Every structure is written in structure tokens, then in C-alpha cells.
Amino acid sequence: MFMYITFTETTVQIDLWRDYVLSSSKWIWRIIGILSIAATLLLIAGFAYAVQDINHPQGSKLNLSAPSAQPEGTAPGNIDQKKELKAAVIGDSLAKGTGDSTGSGFARRSVTKLAEATGKKVTLLNNLGINGLTTSGLLPKLKEQGTRYVLGEADIILLSIGGNDLFQGADLLSGSQTGTATNDGEAADLDPDELLEALPQAKKQLQQILEQVRKINPGALIIYVGLYNPFGDVKDLKVAGNQAVSEWNSAALTVINKYDNMTLVPTFDLFQHQLNKYLSTDHFHPNDQGYERIAERIVQGML
């Protein structure tokens, strides 16, 4: 009797366990079925998207503009984060270094001084300075592929332009493209009014140049070398020349003050009372000492 009861209880337990397993299996198969349906729907959606992408591709727009020299995560004109620096120079005879007996000008002198001050390798990519260049001549140069490439590769761009627009363009001193003072401190065939008349158009072109250089390389530090009056010791040119140079530098600042990566390096005060000391024999371009002082100012403006 006892054995029969025990067998019966065991049989009941087995039946209960079998019912539990069968019930659980139904839920498992239901879950598997739902997941299978979801996976099938996802596969169909992915296949439909792939077909649409092949027939109607939606790729990103191709940027054909000149690549920015600004590295990702680096502020425009910030040279502190860069281990090596590349500089380019563009503009007139001052950019070229005319009047410097060593041929270094402010370009090579600035590169050398910057390397010494920072301990970094600083390379001068190219000096694109041209004797006699004016703003009218520089604007089309900025459209040339070679010029755009050099400027686009630079971390630092040194720009000098405007002296020929004001002084050579107005034909202030006859018989010389660069100008020489007469022995008595007077100027031959002088018309100071022409000097001031040349300002409006030239200033407009200067602003266009600064904007274009920045568009070519928005990540570079752009340094514009301000003008000085090389004829401050010529009686009839002192006042008019100082006025024209002041207005010119002010026009440059109008653009430069808009951007963090632009700087104007003033030179007017360097030469104002030191023309005999810092001008070369042509009485227009700086000499070795003059370029040295300009280079010092340039490096100070970068650090």
C-alpha cells in the first residue's frame, strides 16, 4: 500500500513537470517566432535601402575649393600648437628685400628670429615679392595656381604692398622709380595732391587683397607690414606723405581688426625720425638695419 502511494505521487510529479515544460516550450517558440519575424522585416528594410542607395546615391558634396591650412582642432593663426612652421612672403620690393645687402630682407630675418625665439623649425617656402608691384598687380597674382598653392601651404603669410601705389604711382620724384630727394631737401615735379588722390582706389584694392589672402588660407597667420613715409625728410612731402600713410594703414586695420588671425606690424614710427639710419641709398627701401628692425617687429607680433 505504501509503495503504491509513493508511485502514484511520483507519477503526479512527473505529469506536472511535463505540463510545465510543454507550457514553457510554447512561450519559447512564440518568442523565437517573433524574433524571426522582426529579423526578416529588418533584413527587408536594409535590402530596400541598399537598392535605393544604388539607384539614387546621396553622397556628400565634393569640396573643390583650396584646402584650408588650418589643422582640425587648431584655432586660426595659432602657431603655438605646431611643431614646425612654414612661412610664405608675397608683395612688393620690400617683401623681396630690395635694399638689403645680404638679400635677406625682413623675410629671412623673420624666419631666423622666429626659429630662435620658439626653438622650432621654421621654413621659408617661397618669397613671391616683385619689385615695383602695386595692389593692381597683386590682385591677379592671387588668382594664379602657383601663388595659391604656396600661400595655401603656409602657416605664416607675410604681406607687404602699397608703397608703390602711394609714392611711385603719384610720380612724386621725377627721374627715379623709387624716388630720391634733391640736395636742398625739395622734391622735383612734386604734386602732393596726386598722392592723396591715389588713396581711395588703392585702399579698396588693399582691402580686397587682405580678404583674398585670407580666403586662400583661412588658417594661416597673416601679417601685413604697414607703410612708412620714406620722404619724411623732404619738406614738401612730409605732411602729405604722413597723411597718406596714416590713412593707408587705417584702411588696412579696417579689415585686419575683423579677424583673429590677421596682424598689422607698424613701421611708421621706426623710420619717422631715423630715415638716415634705416633707409638704403635709394632713399626708399630699408637697409640692412631697417629690415632688421622690421623683422624684430614681425616676430614680436607673432609671439
Automatic annotation (TrEMBL):
<feature type="transmembrane region" description="Helical">
    <location>
        <begin position="27"/>
        <end position="51"/>
    </location>
</feature>
<dbReference type="InterPro" id="IPR036514">
    <property type="entry name" value="SGNH_hydro_sf"/>
</dbReference>
<feature type="domain" description="SGNH hydrolase-type esterase">
    <location>
        <begin position="89"/>
        <end position="293"/>
    </location>
</feature>
<keyword id="KW-0812">Transmembrane</keyword>
<dbReference type="InterPro" id="IPR051532">
    <property type="entry name" value="Ester_Hydrolysis_Enzymes"/>
</dbReference>
<keyword id="KW-0472">Membrane</keyword>
<keyword id="KW-1133">Transmembrane helix</keyword>
<dbReference type="InterPro" id="IPR013830">
    <property type="entry name" value="SGNH_hydro"/>
</dbReference>
<protein>
    <submittedName>
        <fullName>Lysophospholipase L1-like esterase</fullName>
    </submittedName>
</protein>
<dbReference type="Pfam" id="PF13472">
    <property type="entry name" value="Lipase_GDSL_2"/>
</dbReference>
